[in-house]
Each structure stands twice: as structure tokens, then as C-alpha cells.
Predict the 3D structure of the following.
Amino acid sequence: MAQADRRGPGRDGPLISQRAAIVFLLAALAGIGATVLAALAGNVWPVAVSVGGGVVAPAVLFFNQIID
């Protein structure tokens, strides 16, 4: 049986694909982990959050490459 088109008029499709959701989830977890490790290393919270934010973009690129 054919699958119905989810993007027809009046029907909402998914906002992002499952692959993109996994990539963003893993990148967010990597950023949170880096933030926690930076805070435990003795950095103040603004620096730790900056470190975590700096990890997210390369993590998105990395996970986008390895998840196929």
C-alpha cells in the first residue's frame, strides 16, 4: 500500500528529518558535556558556556559526516 503524502494541503509534515534531529541532539550533548567539563576544570560559568558553544558547530559538522 502506498504511503500517503504528508505535505499535502492542510497536513503538517515534520519540521526536520530524523537524521537532522539526531545530528543536532548529539551536537547539543557534546556541547553540554564540554560545558560541564570546562566548569569542573575550574573555569567560571561564562567561559564554560562559551567553550560549550564553541564545541557545538564542529560537532554538527562531525556528526553530519559520520551519520549517513
Notes: Residues 16-67 form one domain.
